[in-house]
Amino acid sequence: MSDRGASAPSLPEDWPAHPDPILALNRMGSFDWDLDTGLFHMDAQAHEVFDLRPEEYDGRPESLSLRVPTAESRRMDTIVARAMKDGSENYGTYFRLRRRDGTLRWTHTQGYIRRDATGRPHRIIGIVRDATQEIADIAADREQAELDEARRRLTNVVQLATAALAHARTVDDVIDVLRDTHGLTRLGATSLVMGLVEAGRIRLVADGPENDFLPGTRVTRIDEPYPMSEAVRTLSPRFIESPEEFAQRYPALWKDITHLDITAAAYLPLIAQARPIGAIGLLYNDRRGFSPEDRNVLVALGSGIAQSLQRAMLYEQEMDLAEGLQQAMLPRTIPSVPGCDVAVRYRAASIGGTLGRDIGGDWYDLIPLPGGRVGAVIGDVQGHDTHAAAVMGQLRIVLRAYAAEGHPPATVMARASVFLHELDTDRFATCLYAEADLGTGVVQVVRAGHIDPLMRFGDGTCRLVRVEGGLPLGLSAEFGRLAYPVATLELDPGNTLLLCTDGLVEQPGADLDEGMDVLTALISSGPQDVRDLADRLIDVADERRGDDDVALLVLRRHGLATPRTFGRVQQHVSPGDPEGLTEARHMIRAAVRSWGAKRQSDEIELVADELTTNALMHTEGSAIVTLRLLTGTDRRLRVEVEDSSSALPRRREAGDDGVSGRGLLLVDSLADEWGVEARGGGKVVWAEFVVAHAAG
Question: Does the pTM exceed 0.85?
Fold first, then answer.
């Protein structure tokens, strides 16, 4: 705040300034045009703008023709007449005038129209000024805007092409992006050619529009006089800025493409990891020459295409390796097993829709076993890569080995879990192993975190078979839970067992139960033949385009035209394994019923249980329980219990209060015959039962 006693500041003597000095300071001249008399008065600054001396001007507009070209004068007269006629208050325009030295320069004028009470114009007051620098600035701004727009357009070309190429996974995908009409539009070119380097030659892999290539240029040598060859050979782009330059530098090529009306071309090397993998040629018929910005953008475009191609090549190489690895790991053929029809199928996952297929860890296997038995395996290793395929192959081999050694299903699964845990991998696997006796129809199933099996019956109905399971392979060993419950199923003649991985069940937007219901319905309405059924299920999976691979095993037990005259089932029982004893009982009960001796199943099961318990108690080792159907003059069922002890069993008389010693008495009273046979370092205790020919 200023002091109250301070005097107010004094104003300049010439304040406010007269308009003339202000105009002069801004290099503007003024004029006053009396339309009634025709006099056109100009001040000294206006004379300077028009480059006229006072004695050269007589006060009339016609005198300005010395400086204003005729065309410019007519244009200005038209502008002024229109403004006076349409009632405008002012007008303004740029025009050129010729200076004393004959050069032209830009000038700007602006006039204000005065009208009388009737609205008739009678006077125009205005200004003129030199606009040379202003027009130069406008032209420079316009040129810069055009350059910015061209740079933006070219940058947009790279961005659009890069975005489109980002979704390309294979070399064919890259070619499709570049070759189609949208691809050419993105690149701003009329047509293109692209070649890849193969064994010292360039093989043309793309042309656009399609079939636009020249005959004889499908495969060319790198040392030939073509612009694409030069780009590959020198690792530098070739820019051709006019038809004349094209004809001069590459006459052999030019004579064959004159019909394309090419006005410019850019041939870019495609370089990956400092080596050429190909080249692309962009041909234009609507431009001449390339600015430095054009060249930089096109080089960046070539770099982006090269990266996409390299990524696609590496992807295809990895896919070839993975597919080869998986094919090597899966069984080459499925053995023919008497007593059943089997079909297997594998479908790789479709990751990202239709852009190719990924490899996975799903597998199947069929293992022929002694005594008319067969092992069926379905499994899924976590992940979709070569590591998953490698782990899958190793698991398949060890499962086959453990099963072939004669281990029971629970042991096979437990050992496989330990193997995977010790494999030094972070992967786990789900698995289902089913061991089927095709003579009796008895199927023992063990499940490790896998989905349950399905069974289709002779009447076409299908249902999910709930099987108690354990932890996935690898995890069960890690957490010390290696006990796998064994479920016993009966597969009657004509029934079908189906094992699959979850890729066949899972559907987008549906939970697993819904997917299982859909699969059950498909199987129920599907063909009877296992191969046709497997094909139908895989076709459905293909239509669904799921993001998981699918493995499928379908096993149908043959119907029996005549009664079987032989058979054999077997079960390993370990000490302290009550579940093993239970499974042995289930096996014997199912086999006896299958062989038509249902009425004697209780006696046979009781004798087998007694012999097995006796072996486990007195030998401190495992026992092998075998049930055989013998034929001859009569039909007999023979129960054999083998152990590793050579000590023979003794029949003892049990006291009134005795709780032991009654086992062999029970065997002797129930069996038609029984006895003991030496087997190497151990023995077999057996009992036989005569059974009727009719099914009981």
Answer: no
